[in-house]
Amino acid sequence: MYYFDHAATSYPKPERVIEGVMEGLRDFGANPGRSGHRMALNAGREIFKTREKLCKLFNCGDPKQIVFTSNATEALNLGIKGLLKEGDHVITSSMEHNSVIRPIKELERKGVQSTIIPCDSQGFLDTGKLKKGIKENTKLIVLTHSSNLTGTLMPIKEVGEIANEHDVRFMVDAAQTAGLYPIDVKEMKIDLLAAPGHKALLGPQGTGFLYIREGVVLEPLYVGGTGSKSQELEQPKMMPDRFESGTPNTPGIVGLGRGVDYIMEKGQENLRAHEEAMTGLFLKGIKELPFVKIYGPCDEKKQSPVVAINIGEMDSSEIAYILDQGFEIGVRPGLHCTPLAHKTIGTTDQGVVRFSFGYSTKKTDIEYAVNALRTIGDEL
Predict the structure, then answer these.
(1) Top-level CATH class of 268-378?
(2) pTM for this one?
């Protein structure tokens, strides 16, 4: 399989990630924080090591401000629903994933107001429009770092400054960028950072996290056993226990930590340079195909390693089926859980075929994919 679906899940995982998961299952597969025996203590130590690694990568400061979740969707729900209350106002953009839009729409039924700032046809955000949208009751600005549809990179540092100037909390959905692009939560004035473990962080599925800046008060999505303050009937207030009820995914979190190790060893800038090169090579190749329509910035420096295309008037699912069955190429067609983004770029009816690249993508893979698209176009 020629795999071009890294924006959904990176594949294959580095061998050390797989070994980390197996080690967690085999050597200390016990409940961390629930017992005093050596396996439970080892599990707790390994989980804390991953918190420390994530803190180093994103300059979070105190590792206890990292809350582990099962994915970015859970982290986004925790941040959005945990912060906003009746009468509050939230601002977001038209390029957001449903993991942002749907929690906001659900909160609208509970008295939360929202403003969705329209982006241009390439997915870019006008920060002037965003600034004008701030009201007296604006509590939160939540913004994707990069569109999962077009790859368009958003000006999160500038938006962080705007939010900070107006005393508004700033939340970033880093689903497409965490692990690949430099994110410094202090420098960028990020109060809440949500990310999955299974994409550019190269960890296993079923992992993710939410960074919560010290001083930001959230309500937990659910409560229960934490292994701490067990004599109390109320949920503990201390971090991260307040938001981590139930048995954690210890093997997955260990694997996530090994993914961060890989990124640190190879160098984030080197991994990004490779994926930018693969994106640029693909864009150059398909620009020569007159029947291919490309959406988004069409510039590897202005987008994450994601390219959205269509071929003539063909349905995007049909193209993906032909690529899979005829060429063993794996892509993602359809609406990508971003209906507002498709409306923004004008592809609601047709959808798009999304190619996304990763650390394992090779030049020969790109050449093969371009030739496959040329073959399909020649038969139109």
Answers:
(1) alpha beta
(2) 0.97
